[in-house]
Amino acid sequence: MPDKNDNLSPEERVSDFLRKFVNNKKEKETKKTLNTFTRSKQNTRGRSTNPFARHDINEYVQLELPEEVKSKITHLQQIASSIEDKVIKPKRLPSLKGKNFKIDYKKELNRGQFLATITVNGPILVIAGAGSGKTRTITYRVAYLLENQVPPEEILLLTFTRKAANEMVKRTSELLPEGNVDQVMRGTFHAFANYTLRRYANMVNIPINFTIVDTGDSEDIIDLIRSELKFNKAKKAFPRKNRIQGIISKSRNCSISIQEVVEREFTGLLDYVKDLELIARVYKEYKRANNVFDYDDLMEVLYESLRDFPVFREKMQERYRYIMVDEFQDTNIVQKGIVDFLAGKHHNIMVVGDDAQSIYAFRGANFENILTFPAVYPDCKIIKLEQNYRSNQDILNFTNNIANNALLGYKKTLFSENSNEFKPIAAKYYDIQEEADFIGDKILALREQGIDFEKIAVLYRSSFHSNSIQTALIARKIPYIVVGGIKFIERRHIKDMISYLRIILNPLDAVAWNRVLKLIPGVGKVTASKIIESIQANDGKLNVESFGKKKFGKGLADLQKALETASREDKPLIYRVEVLRDYYNPILKELETDYRKRAQDLDVLQQMSERYEVLDRFLSDFALDPPSDQFQDMTTPLIDETEENPMTLSTIHSAKGLEWHTVFVPHLLDGLFPSSRGLKKIEELEEERRLFYVACSRAKEQLYLSMPSYFSSWDDFYTKPSRFLIEVDPEKYRGSK
Questions:
Q1: Whole-model pTM?
Q2: Exactly one of 113, 117, 134, 648 is catalytic; which is it?
Q3: Which residue has the higher pLDDT, 715 or 135?
């Protein structure tokens, strides 16, 4: 006889199961307990009543390690454990007396920061814990070099965001107003590669007027190749353009074959490996023929140029005698190779990073780069920055415990002079809705205590973890922003305008031509291809007369006229952008019903161009460090000027480097965080642990950890608290049921 529960959903079956064991009165009491975070009490035997302490980590599925992985881990552990011998621990700090410095370095820096600042010769590894003032350290080190008469143009500062590089130089300028700090070469790896390759193009045999395509353009090129090779008509569902682009990029960033990428991460695509390899080859040839570089090309071409052109390599080594690399744990194999080539002669290289915050393996970052630095540079000195200026000691005790549970890494113990007491709090709720309700209610309570919304963040492992939380915030009229979404540069009308400008710089840019030609009425995919073939056959010149009798002839002539006018190099860039905007406005009006709102974005674009004198610099900055979404509202005033600044909802990956007074980390069930995918390989599991560390170390004063009692997905059912929480000493946090 069929069971009456056969037709129930998994969630309904769970609810029915739980109700059998909980009467109404007890269920109400349980919910009341789950909805209130309370301090853990000690029982008469002195043991913690933290409910999570009852779990044993041995109850969790443990990963088996292949012999080659065990061997690799052992090797890296030996390197990490041997660094204490190289850590600089002078009994007395060196004296700077007798030198007429404008800055009192010893007074303004703590012990570790001071040592990192004045140790400028030879290789040095600075292990900088979260919130330990690494930006301050690099800033003062640049100032120290300048005060020691090192020419600013001989200093190279590589970072992962232009904002970070500019912030360091700005602070240094404030310390040394007369130090010519603006001449220090600084920027992201990609920006540095772009600048260097353009300046020395003739020396390394590349065209100087190459254009840079972003990820979206790369996907479009791959889609074109996919169609030309008839893979779009395959009998089986062929991988889409974004998946192919991701596989090719991962292969290049990790210096492994496409087959290895597929075997590691996309086993369902093993039948397509040969086809993907073919697309990758054609993609490379297409870019070369059209004088186009993607992001990965910038890294690869610079690396190969340093490797294959000795004169170029020697010139770079002589030019940059002092090199500093921020966030070294985020470098990939190619980036590390570039750094090693640049530092190959003088060895005056300082890398700064935190192995516990290496969370970007998905985009090619190699965690081993920072671990093996002492082995690559045997004479390197090591300095630890362990004084934290962000969090209170209770939070640091918790995050230290997370980091030191890692299988690999440099052991460190962060400490703080912030004596505010607030142990992180962990609790389990009945379901995701009750968890979300708690977060919403707690945020309102914090606001009543004087904690502004903008000082609060909810950080989650995956975007879908925020769905129920957003609903709870909306119900309570709590303003919030979600980090992500469509970026300014990814908007259709902005990409159109950038394409016009790219054509002016590189008339062979087929990607840009394809985009703007299809904006002309009567020009479709096939016609655009024919026009592009004509342009390439004429060395980048558009021969309108060949298509004059076509119905799109006038539209083509108007485009040619606009491009010719905007190509005048004797005119300022803002004028050239305005010419193209005047041409594009009628097109935008026909394309979009909200064209007035989109026109505001074009206002911003035009205003931005005023800061630039040359087109290639404007396009390079736009491609390599695009503006954020903040620009979309520059011309739109707030409806209510007293409106409160919103709180933040963000994935943890997007929150790195940021901090808030209060942080919530939800959905801490094993299988959600760590994700089920991260439970397959030890390398992925370790990165998931580092991700948890990054999330928790964003909190300055209060940290809340929560989970529902269960979560049901189409392929599994999760009920256990995250193993990362269970691993932590229960005395380091307060727990509720």
A1: 0.74
A2: 134
A3: 135
